[in-house]
Amino acid sequence: AQVEERIGLTLLPKLSDAQMEAFAALAEKDTTSPEEWKKFWYDAIPNFEKEVRIILTGFADEARGILGA
Length: 69
What we know:
single chain, mainly alpha
């Protein structure tokens, strides 16, 4: 849940107004599939995988620091 929140907080500000509307529409649906979310993010963020990799690396570094590893 923490990782998903971090990804969302980092990527949502990068969305245009139209993309935010599309995001809200998907979020409001009870039946949004993982495939629909994947398509949305890949369409909305040009280098989505790279962005997520950077976010995850930062999160992992912070977690290691907190855990003292």
